[in-house]
Amino acid sequence: MTYKNFTVENDADGIALVTWDMPDRSMNVFTEEVMDELEEIIDEVVAEAGVKGAVITSGKESFSGGADLGMLQKMLGIFHAEKARNPHKATQLLFDGAGRMGWLWRKLETSGKPWVAAINGTCMGGAFELALACHGRVAADSDKVKMALPEVKVGIFPGAGGTQRVPRLTDQQQALQMLTSGQQLSPQKAKAMGLIHEIAAPEKLVETAKAMIRNGLKPVAPWDEKGFKLPGGPIYSAAGANLWPPAIAILRRETYGNYPAASAILKCVYEGLLVPFDTALRIEQRYFTEIMQTKEAAAMIRSLFVSLQELNKGARRPAGLPDTKFTKIGVIGAGFMGAGIAYVTARAGIPVVLIDRDIEAAEKGKAHSDGLITDAVKKGRAKPEEKEKLLSLITPSADYADLAGADLVIEAVFEDSAVKKTATEKAEAALGAGAVFASNTSTIPITSLAKNSARPNDFIGIHFFSPVDRMMLVEIILGKKTGDKALATAIDYVRAIKKTPVVVNDTRGFYVNRCVLRYMSEAYKMLIEGVPAAMIENAAKAAGMPVGPLALTDETAVDLAQKIMKQTARDLGDKAVDPEQMKLIDTLVDGHGRFGRKNGKGFYDYPPKPAKKKLWPGLKDLYPQKRAEDVDYEELKRRLLVTIALEAARVMEEGIVTDPREADVGSILAFGFAPYTGGALSYIDGIGAAEFVKVAKGLQKKYGAEFKPPRLLIDMAAKGETFYQRFDPYAKDGEKQAA
Fold it and tell me: How many domains, the chain?
């Protein structure tokens, strides 16, 4: 038979080589068509007497990225459409759809002939579950091979047997760690855990897999054999008693109960290991059906998979412009930010000229890259030859003439308009026609900086977050005169360095900083009210934020918060800054010399490692302290999320961000807005605009005008709209509704 997505070749030994190579995709993914074809191939292998077994591998560089989550969205669409008519039938349809892949892998596993997975690259999700169902697993000895079950990161869990096969192949502690974190495994780690059998040189991968069949590989999974025993011992054993109570407590500590899928994994593993394998698969299928109906799964799949992929592929890039092939990039300013930008540029294989006031400063900036790549080599994340190549791509200089021939120049000098003006003029004198100039400003409007440019059409903002090498989001800011070419070039660059671009119209603080400043400001208000600092930080983490607002202030610097407040007061008047909050920050900076992590003392004290940071005891002496029992803890959590979400809504109302995907993805990647919500706007959509407005108005009465819902939200509440309806990112140009 011939197939669209697979080829099947039988060799002289009677071994079928099944090669997965989807013609219309850069990476293999599971679709309904792929699963239909794979089922036919399983039947074919079973039916042909001359076939002793089969090896499945990929014809692409990677094995597979797993299931196409668009397929899951389609399942959910069918479920919601049917639910209104027949809830029972809707749930049954979802249940059947959820089990399709799991029972197909079980069919392969019990087919009576041996199957071997030859894993030649990335092998994720359902693809790794397929491999686990094979009787033998061989992985190529290559850095390109990464295996994982990462579904929990998008609000679901491995629902095609992953929660049952992994803890039957390795001990339960390692299984739970892998399943609840979505961690990636190298071939060596996977073999040590017992999840694969062999590691082979890439060129011998298929031959090694075939040899397993020739050498008599049994077509029976370990758990289908009589007398099978769990690697780490049964649930009801001394080992189980030592594992499960702490495991449940640790999950609660790490997730605060915000991630239903993570809790479902523990239930699946615990219950599944107590029953026969087929029953365990049905337990997993039931939990998967339940999780698929949660708002957390819907929101996380949309934002952290679908929207993220679309933005990474350039969803906001102007159409019709050729892709930019970068041959040289200039970075002006070799301080912490500029040096970080040079590093990620060189890491992407693009030559970069790093300019500073003198060669010593520029060399110091290059040394930052040396330190980062050296550390990566020590940790096994990079090879020594990669270090040599990366450093060869960075040219330190004090001469602006060395920028000649650059496709893009990024200015990352001190946050001062006069200094930026000088840098712009010197750079443009050296640049050729068509080169794009970008400013990495975090506070100064791009339109005002573009006035220093002789070609504002080619002037744009590219706002990185610190530390540049670790933060995955980049804000691209449009000035009033920024042209499409500059935007396309900026998006091409951000994609080239493998970060996610969001496009923002010009305003003070842009998008991310406006939201972050609200988050911090609400924490300062709580302190002033007498809420114990520990309660503020704990409430933030319980609400789903990765870092408390006081700790975040320390990371960005308390004295920077002071500078921003003072600059805001100068620009917008004294009423633009809460005098009590200004007094709090002045007290820390001027009264106690507490600048944040950078000088070892801020809202926290930072003792020498390995000691951990701890809240500064002096905080409780600044204001009369409330008793913990007199504080509404749930309201603290609500205040911290609602204040951010309201600012995100205002940004949409003002037209600063126009695409809800960017608002949601940006809020998660930039400052970790409670990922289980799907992002700041999805948080509002999940609650419902009418209910959210009611909550906001209640907080406004108690805590002030910053909780006043904008007109946009009030209008949405009246019309029963969501942000994804009001600002449909998939509508054709000109069809989007105005706010």
Answer: 3
